[in-house]
Structure formats: C-alpha cells, structure tokens
Amino acid sequence: MTLEKKLLKFSAFGGLFFAVLGLAWGIIIKSNMIMFDGLYALISLFLSMFAIWITNYIEKSDLENFPFGKVMFEPITVAVKSIILILMCTISFKDAVKEILNGGNIVNTNLALGYSIISTIACTLIYRLISKKSTKLSSEILKAESSQWFMDSILTAGVLVGYFITMILGATSFSYYTRFVDPLMVVLISVVFIRVPLMTLFKSFNEMVNGKADDKINDEINTIVEDIKEEYNFQDSVTRVSKIGRELRIEIDFVFNEKSTLTELDEMDKVREQVYANMIDIKLKKWLNINFTGDKKWAI
Fold it and tell me: This protein's superkingdom (predicted)?
C-alpha cells in the first residue's frame, strides 16, 4: 500500500472518530457548534473514502479508454469536495442565524470546554502530519485532506476560545447573553470556513480547463527553454505549461531557421533529455512533448 493511501485511510479513521465524538457530545450538551464540528468530520469521512476510491482508480492503467491518463479525476475530486463543504457552511450559517433570532441556546460550558481541548490538540497533530506528507508527495488529494484538517483545527480552536468567553460572561451581569455565543460561533466559523473550499474550487477549476501552471513553474521552464533556444540558434520557441493534479503538461515547440545548428534526430532526442534533466527539481510528474518545426504556424 502506498504512503498516500495509508494517509488517506488514517484521515478517514480520524474523521470517523471525530464524527462520532462531535455528534454525540453535541447532542448530549445541546451544542450546535459541536454538532457542526461532528457533522464536518462526518462529511470529511465520506470525502476521504471517496478520495481513496478515486486514487485507486487513477492508478489503474487504461490507455485504451484514457489515452492521456486519468489525472483529470484529481481536480474533479477536489472540486466535488469543495462544493460539498461550501454547501455545508452555507446551510449551517442559515440555521445559526435562525437560532439567534429565536433566542439563542444554553450550553453546558464545562463539558463543551472539555471537548474543545481534546479536539483542538488532536486535529492540529493530524493536520501537521498530513500537510507535511502531502508536500513531500506532491499530492493534491492529500493537500485537500490537510486543508480539511486545518479547517477543523481552526474550528475547534475557535470553539475553545468561544466557550472560554461564555464561561467568563456567565460569571458577570451579562450572563443572559451566553445563550447567543454557541449559534454566533457557528455563524462566524461558517463565514471563515467557506473561504478555503472556495479558493480550492477555483484552483481545481483552473486545472480542469487546462489553465496555466503557477508563475514560479512557468518562469523556471521558460528560462530552460530560452537557454536551449540560444544554444542551438533556434528562430523562436513556444512553450505551454498547465498543471492538472500532480502532473505537469508541458509542450515546447522550437522553430528552426537557416542558422539553427540542430539537424539530426539523435540531436533532437538529446535536446529532449537536456530539457527534462533541467526540470529535475520540479517535484511533479511530467507529461513532456517537444516538437521541432521550420514553420511557426505548426507551433501556435
């Protein structure tokens, strides 16, 4: 089993634990904020299981039906996860506002604090582990998983702060307003949370429509191409780079003229090897296609 799959399964078991813990604890003390946390963990669990299935599917070779590979399923998976989380935040926001208008909700602060401390510590540790490994493996699916755990860490930390405030208010003449803290936290967390899946959704959409890779990667590859162009006296070059999941799609066209020094097929393959070797520090799978032409119309 690959490390990526092991981490996805670990994330799924973590999601199951916090889903059961959050929903049960929230129902017992009647806290919508903690139930929101449990519901988020439950949705994360289903999304993690979906990510595991997609990862297995992507790795199965099927060149007959997918001649360019299945890497496109990765940004599609991330987009689906983002849309579901956006819907969850939107619905939770609406329900919390309704509860505030209906007079709020009284929660057992001591029990709520106990849950918040346990959840904050555990979620932060899981996030740090998956985030570190996702960077090492250049896995967009694991990055989406780490984003979910980051959001859950922020959520539980916010809940912890909120219930400390509730405890302080309960000891003052403003104790009546403690009933509004729980739904108000749901409102605030929903607004904060929705930003991450929105950004992830836009990023995955850019990959699905073959948008350009980020500027750092583009600049590095363009520099490599310009060096090759000058070395062999090519008239021009056209470079296209897009990122789909963990894969870079790179197409480079070199345009000949009478001063170009490259003439043999072996030399063309040498250029391909040279370009590929110079990209070794880019830790992504590469789909590299390098063409040579005497007419720029075939390159644009």
Answer: Bacteria
Handedness of CA 89, 95, 96, 101 (dihedral sign): positive
User: Would you give the end-to-end CA distance of the chain in angstroms?
Assistant: 43
The residue whose two tokens read 């999601």 is 15
| Tokens 């590929």, residue located | 276
pTM for this predicted structure: 0.71
Return the CATH number of the domain spanning residue range 3-208: 1.20.1510.10
Fold classification of 215-298 is Alpha-Beta Plaits (3.30.70)
pLDDT digit string, tens, across residues 51-109: 778 877 877 877 778 877 788 888 888 888 889 889 988 988 998 899 899 888 888 88
Q: Which residues contact 196 (CB under 8 A, 6 or more apart)?
A: 85, 147, 150, 151
Q: Could you give the count of Cα atoms lying within 13 Å of 265 in the half-sphere of its Cβ?
A: 0
pLDDT tens across 18-29, in order?
888 888 988 888
